[in-house]
Design brief:
alpha/beta, Rossmann fold, GMP Synthetase, Chain A, domain 3, 2 domains, 5-stranded mixed β-sheet, binds xanthosine-5'-monophosphate
């Protein structure tokens, strides 16, 4: 297939009209490429794969099969939202795979961050490949590749490997309908396709998910503390207008306990660490100056609503020298 590149003079897609023109053109291109064959997509619920799903549903409907793997490391409400938006509202062919136990069992007792990342990445490919083998007649694999991915792989910054390292028996032709778009354009296109704002304008979220925020060996109870405290932080940032302003914000729960007192009794529980940073390119980052009343409210909610937590701390370290994630 000929290599499609972003034309040098292409106008930045910044309005609903430009987005619609792009969508119409891509729908025709996808129909032409795919014909009456079937397409498979790993739908994480992130911006890029969600926009690709919405576009392909418009273009080829039930010829598309989406596979959503819940690896247990997603944020609160994410798997439910994928099902609601794509299966219930857009009537997509969606296979939901509950792989929570599988991932958490594999991760049990593993504390090295890079080993955790490898396990999560490999297990994901394994689960997705198993689902793909159960399906007949799939010819194409759709991917949410975007223009910066292509540029970075050309410049050797990161390996953009299509088909995400699928085993050799699964060789598909690729469908990459947003590959000439920048991230901001993908969002405008997603909005024009009718995706909800909290899906289109969401903050960056690492592939290994909450796994790298549950420091050290992941346990289910501490992972739950990460998920619940993250949900509270997101709710409170949305309520005070910080959600649209801060680049990335989340919580971390390290594997340490300290003494506290709850209901008149001694307790020995985890701290929750808040992180809220602003950056242009994630190479360096500054700390958001969260108003004190907001910090106080978040602290109060976490201490009363999240099990196993008796302290809340705010990480004031810019990058460098602290990275954005703790692992
Ligand atoms: P650091 O921690 O390196 O993070 O300052 C910079 C940005 O990259 C994200 N990040 C990841 N994203 N897989 C991803 O897809 C990863 O393993 C990973 N580690 C960090 C991080 O959330 C931040 O936006």
């Amino acid at each position: 297939m000929e290599e499609i590149r972003r034309p040098d003079n292409m106008e930045r897609i910044s309005t609903p009209e430009l987005a619609q023109a792009f969508i119409d053109k891509e729908i025709a291109a996808v129909r032409e490429q795919v014909g009456d064959k079937k397409v498979l997509l790993a739908l994480s619920g992130g911006v890029d794969s969600s926009v690709v799903a919405a576009l392909l549903i418009k273009a080829i409907g039930k010829q598309l099969t989406c596979v959503h793997v819940n690896h247990g490391l997603l944020r609160k409400g994410e798997p439910e939202q994928v099902i609601e938006v794509f299966r219930n509202q857009m009537d997509a062919n969606l296979i939901y795979v509950d792989a929570v136990d599988r991932f958490l069992d594999k991760l049990a007792g593993v504390s090295d961050p890079e080993t955790k990342r490898k396990i999560i990445g490999n297990e994901f490919i394994e689960v997705f490949a198993e689902e793909a083998r159960k399906l007949d007649d799939i010819h194409f694999l759709a991917q949410g590749t975007i223009w910066p991915d292509i540029l970075e792989s050309e410049h050797g910054i990161k390996a953009h490997h299509n088909a995400g390292g699928l085993p050799d028996d699964l060789s598909f032709e690729l469908v990459e309908p947003v590959k000439i778009l920048f991230k901001d354009e993908v969002r405008v296109v997603g909005k024009a396709l009718g995706l909800p704002d909290n899906m289109v304008y969401r903050q960056p979220f690492p592939g290994p998910g909450l796994g790298v925020r549950c420091i050290g060996a992941i346990t289910r109870d501490r992972l739950e503390a990460v998920r619940e405290s993250d949900a509270i932080l997101r709710e409170e940032f949305a309520a005070c207008g910080l959600a649209g302003k801060v680049w990335q914000y989340f919580t971390i729960v390290p594997d340490i306990r300290s003494t506290g007192i709850k209901n008149g009794e001694r307790c020995f529980e985890w701290p929750v660490i808040l992180r809220a940073v602003n950056t242009i390119d994630a190479m360096s980052a500054e700390i958001e100056e969260i108003p004190y009343p907001v910090l106080k409210k978040i602290t109060n909610r976490i201490l009363t609503e999240v099990n196993g937590v008796n302290r809340v701390l705010y990480d004031l370290s810019p990058k460098p020298c602290g990275t954005i994630e703790w692992e």
